[in-house]
Amino acid sequence: MKILDKIVTICNDNLVSTVLNESAFQNSAIYGLSYQTVPRDESPLRPYTWIGDNTTGIEIDDTVNFSIYHRCQNINFVEVSNSFGDGNGMMGMVCDMYAVVYADRYKTGYTQEDIIMKISAGLNRTFSRTELGTSGLLKVKTSVRRANNNSVQVFEGEYGNGANCPLHLNSVYFGIQYQLEITASSSCLNCSDC
Fold first, then answer.
1. Which residue, among 114, 86, 135, has the nearest Cα to 25 in the 3D structure?
2. What is the pLDDT of residues 112-140, one digit of tens each?
3. How far apart are CA 126 and CA 180, in angstroms?
4. How far apart (Å, rounded) are the C-alpha atoms in residues 45 and 115?
5. Per-residue H/E/C for 130-181
6. Which of 3, 20, 124, 185 could form a disulfide with 25 if both were Cys (CB 3.0 to 4.6 A apart)?
């Protein structure tokens, strides 16, 4: 769904322009919507993302100070209450999302808890129609639900139990569960232009 990619990109742009605008975060790898490959021949899980028509693997990479990627875990459809008319032609979706964050504590100057608070503050937001830049996309509300700061548990969830964990004492690695509440026209969600 291209619209979900667009929303995740808008969330990332908001993070970069608000809470990740310091010089320590300029050397960052900001990824959009990601997926996990199925292990084959006992190889570990691998998260990946699409950049254009090409897939790109996402690895813990200490050459960057900070990296983030997002994954959609579940989509629920909800009724939309519309103050204009009966709401026909409108759709509501609640997407359960998961953001995985890696940072170097020494290079950024922030502890894991500090970065969790920064990212959570940046994700808690309601985007208006004008900010979204799509006429059929009426509103998107992002709400942080919880953060998992157990780095080893997050790593095993991303790469499997058998993968060799490259985290160091200076590694910040955690996951944030958040929700996207999307209100849009049915034609917007069905469109493939944006």
1. 114
2. 999 999 999 999 999 887 777 766 778 89
3. 9
4. 26
5. HHHCCCCEEEEEEEEEEEECCHHHHHHHHHCCCCCCCCCCCEEEEEEEEEEE
6. 20
Min mean pLDDT across 72-81, 84-93, 124-133 is at 84-93
Contact 12, 25 (CB under 8 A): no
Q: Determine how β-strand 54-57 pairs with β-strand 137-148.
A: unpaired
- What are the structural domains, with CATH classification, of the chain? 2-190 (3.30.2000.30)
Among residues 137, 143, 170, the alpha carbon closest in space to that of 60 is found at 170
> Radius of gyration (Cα) for the chain, nearest Å?
18
Amino acid found at 139: K
What's the whole-number mean pLDDT along residues 16-20? Answer: 95
Q: How far apart are CA 167 and CA 156, in angstroms?
A: 12
Q: Which residues contact 2 (CB under 8 A, 6 or more apart)?
A: 191, 192, 194
**Pairwise CA distance, residues 66 & 87, whole Å:** 42
From residue 33, how far is each of 11, 104, 135, 166, 174 by CA, in Å? 11, 22, 22, 23, 17
* Closest-CA residue to 188 (of 80, 94, 91): 91
